[in-house]
Design a protein that fits this description.
This protein is α+β, with helices and mostly antiparallel strands. The chain has a single domain, classed as SOS response associated peptidase-like (hypothetical protein yedk fold, Alpha-Beta Complex). Helices cover 16% and strands 39% of the residues. It contains five helices and 16 strands. Strands 2, 4, 5, 8, 9, 12, 13, 14 and 15 form a nine-stranded mixed sheet that branches. Strands 3-1-10-11-16 form a five-stranded antiparallel sheet, with no helix packed on it. A two-stranded antiparallel ribbon has the order 6-7. 32% of the residues are buried. The C terminus is likely disordered.
Length: 218
């Protein structure tokens, strides 16, 4: 999956959708790895909306030898990787990532454009994620991916693990078997997806065409 998504919703709608509270949080129009994004986590029975940066620290042995600073890893594609052993089994590290669209590039190398993917009839989506505090970057999060459906696959063979509202609790509190089940179940049906092709360059910073101020759902 690509490393770009948008959140075309106001703070009140996000809080209402996820049953979470936040205070004076800025809703980012788009997020790429290393940028701040919003996550919903649960502490002491309360859901909280927090701003964190996208991407866990990544420092390989080769990077250490070269003296490189830590990079970022914003996607969990392989639950069998030892780096996720302790993280995925412990519910306290799980979070929900609010989004409305995720992007993949299309076009010629050096002139890639933005194609945006969303789910029909859904104002807000939840991406299954993990979060923790780090020495390198402070509070960070990452999102879990799965095999892409037929709409996304021509652009990328991975896509976010998207959860419905009835699945939030199971993601936040479930056992490791639930985590595995979410990653390896069938993706959102291709007939439920929409694509918005644009002429916006990949690094343009331009949001999806449907990105407009939304009325609150309350």
């Amino acid at each position: 999956m690509t490393r770009l998504y948008s959140l075309a919703a106001c703070l009140a709608d996000i809080e209402a959708q996820f049953g979470a509270g936040g205070s004076d949080i800025v809703v980012p129009t788009e997020t790429i790895e290393g940028d701040p994004g919003l996550v919903v986590l649960e502490r002491d029975g309360r859901r909280l909306l927090k701003s964190m940066s996208w991407g866990f620290p990544r420092l390989t042995s080769e990077m250490r030898l070269r003296g490189d600073p830590p990079g970022r890893i914003g996607l969990v594609a392989d639950l069998t990787n030892p780096m996720w052993d302790k993280l995925v089994v412990d519910p306290r590290y799980r979070c929900l990532i609010p989004l409305t669209d995720f992007a993949n590039p299309h076009g010629d190398p050096g002139a890639k454009k933005r194609s945006w993917f969303s789910v029909k009839g859904e104002q807000l989506l939840a991406w299954a994620g993990f979060c923790r505090n780090t020495l390198e970057f402070g509070p960070v999060y990452t999102g879990m991916t799965m095999t892409a459906n037929a709409v996304v696959e021509p652009y990328n063979d991975r896509m976010p693990v998207l959860l419905g509202p009835a699945e939030y609790d199971r993601w936040l509190h479930g056992a490791i078997q639930d985590v595995i089940g979410f990653q390896f179940r069938p993706p959102v049906g291709a007939d439920r997806m929409t694509i918005k092709h644009t002429d916006d360059l990949w690094k343009s910073g331009k949001v999806p065409p449907s990105f407009l101020p939304q009325p609150t759902m309350l």
